[in-house]
Amino acid sequence: MTVSILTPFLNSGRRKWGAVKADFTKSWPGDDLVPEVKGEYLHAVTINAPAAVVWKWLVQLGQGRGGFYSYEFLENLIGCKMRNVDKIVPELQRLKVGDAIPMHPKMGSPYIVQAMEPPRFLLLLIRVDTQTGKPFSLSAKKPAKYQNQSWLLYLDENKQGTTRLISRSRNDWDDCLGNTIFYGLFGPMSVEMDRKMLKGIKQRSESAISK
User: Fold this and answer.
1) I need a labelling partner for 21 at 20 to 30 A (CA). Which of 41, 58, 82, 131 fits?
2) Contact at 8 Å (CB) between 154 and 148?
3) pTM for the model
4) Residue 6 has pLDDT above 70, yes or no
5) CA–CA distance from 77 to each of 73, 80, 110, 158, 178 (Å)?
6) Distances (CA, A) of 85 to 58, 68, 200, 210
7) Going from the N-terminus, what domains does the chain have, and what CATH number goes with each?
8) CA distance linking residue 202 with residue 46, whole number of Å
């Protein structure tokens, strides 16, 4: 994590971690939710487990839920009160479109489940007027201050029973000072946190298969 922050000139490569050329030429679910992009990343990892197993870890994501399987200590330094679980929790397996996936117990807007196709993909969105805290529509004029962020978690299982997990984040925001500081500081951190999350899901999914 520290190396990532101190070497921002390597962030372009980090934003493509695990991805292949074909990943950047195809259309993904939810790309239309953020038509104008100021920042994005696409990460991928191959997991030696079927998609149905990996899916169970995805639907538990969230603060106050199963955590994000990432750097729990760093998340809690900013008051996230995160707790990463190492088991499947039955009551956290019920997820539907419209549900909120919080990142922090008090600050910021939660991701909202926009679409899901078990065990294929989970599509999340934050689209908020940061002055009012209310969502807005792309068919109307953008608010003076806003954030529009989509996050796709996509599972591609092959015939051998292994699964490729793709994490795709697309972000748009206004150029106010608050957003400039937020994305400038937390942008590189979120890239590293996402890579750690994918590794965490891989480890948990493969451990579940080996038992």
Assistant:
1) 58
2) no
3) 0.90
4) no
5) 6, 7, 19, 39, 20
6) 12, 9, 10, 18
7) 16-210 (3.30.530.20)
8) 8
| 177, HSE (Cβ side, Cα atoms, 13 Å) | 0
Assign 177 a pLDDT band (cuts: 50, 70, 90): confident
User: Do you find a cis peptide bond into 119, omega within 30 degrees of 0?
Assistant: yes
d(CA 10, CA 101): 30
- 119-144 b/e (C-beta count within 10 Å ≥ 16 → b): bebbbbbbbbbbeeeeeeeeeeeeee
Q: Which three-class secondary structure state does DSSP give residue 61?
A: coil
Confidence of residue 209 (pLDDT cuts 50, 70, 90): confident
- pLDDT over 60 at 166, yes or no: yes
pLDDT of residue 5: 47
Q: Are 123 and 95 in contact (CB under 8 A)?
A: no
By three-state DSSP, how is residue 22 classified?
helix
Write down the pLDDT at residue 66.
96
Residue pair 169/150 in contact (Cβ under 8 Å)? The answer is: yes
Structure tokens at 129: 């007027």
Q: Give the DSSP H/E element, type plus range, for residue 180.
A: helix 177-210
Provide φ and ψ at 46, rounded to 5°: -95, 130
Quick: pLDDT tens for 67-103.
Answer: 999 998 888 787 888 999 999 999 999 999 999 999 8
Cα–Cα dist 115/55, whole Å? 14
